[in-house]
Amino acid sequence: MSTEQKIHKIYETMHQTYIEKFELWREEIMFGWQWWIGVFLTIIPWILWAKYRPKESTHRLLYIAFFVMVIAIWLDSIGVQLGLWHYNYEVLPFSPSYKPWDITLIPVLTIVFIQIKPNVSFLKKGILYGFLVSFIAEPVFVWSDFVVYTGWKYIYSFPIYTGIYFISHYLSTRNHFGRIQKNRDY
Fold it and tell me: What pLDDT is recorded for position 183?
C-alpha cells in the first residue's frame, strides 16, 4: 500500500469517527445542562468584560485576548490529538478543543489580570495567574467531568500558563505600532 493510500485510509477512519462523535453530541450532549453551562461560559465573561473594561484600552486588550485565543486553541488541540486529555461536553463538536476555555475563560482572565492593578509586578501576577488556572480552574473542570486528563498533570500547566501571561504582559506594554505603509505595487 502506498503512502497516499495509507494516509487516505487514516482520513477515512477519522471522518467516520467524527460522524459518530457528531451523532453522539447531537443526541446526548447538545442542549443538556453541561452544554448550557458551556454556552454561558462562552458568552457571559465577554459581556461582563465589555461592561467593566477600561474603554481607552479596549483595542490593546482585545489584541492580547486574540493572541491568547490562538495559543490556547493550538495547545489544546495538540493535547487532545496526543491523547493527553479529552472533553466530554463540547459546545461545538467540530474541533478537539473546548471553546469556552480557549476563546473565553483563558483570554478574558488574562486581560482582566493585565488591567487590574497594572503597577503590581508582572512576575507576581504571572505566577498567581499560572497558579490559579493550573491548580484551581483546571481541577474544577476535571472534577466536574468537562475534561478528562489521561496523560496530563496540573503541574505541567503551571509553566505554560505563567509563560502565556508573561508574553501577554509584554505585548500589552508595547507603546505603539508603526503606520501601515502603502505598498507601491498597488
Answer: 67
CB 104 within 8 A of CB 128: no
| 149 burial via Cβ count (<10 Å: 0-12, 13-18, 19+) | middle
Kindly tell me if the per-residue pLDDT of 163 is higher than 60.
yes
List the domain boundaries for the chain.
Answer: 1-30, 32-172
Q: Can you name the residues that pair with 86 across neighbouring β-strands? A: 148
CA distance 77 to 96: 5
User: How far apart (Å, rounded) are the C-alpha atoms in residues 156 and 158?
Assistant: 6
- Asked whether 81 and 18 are in contact (CB, 8 A), the reply is no
Taken in order 23, 81, 153, 104, the sign of the CA dihedral is negative
3-state secondary structure of 173: coil
Contacts of 146 (CB under 8 A, 6+ apart): 34, 38, 87, 88, 89, 98
pLDDT band of residue 186 (cuts 50, 70, 90) is: low
Name the residue with cell 485576548: 65
31: left (phi over 0), alpha (psi -120 to 50) or beta: left
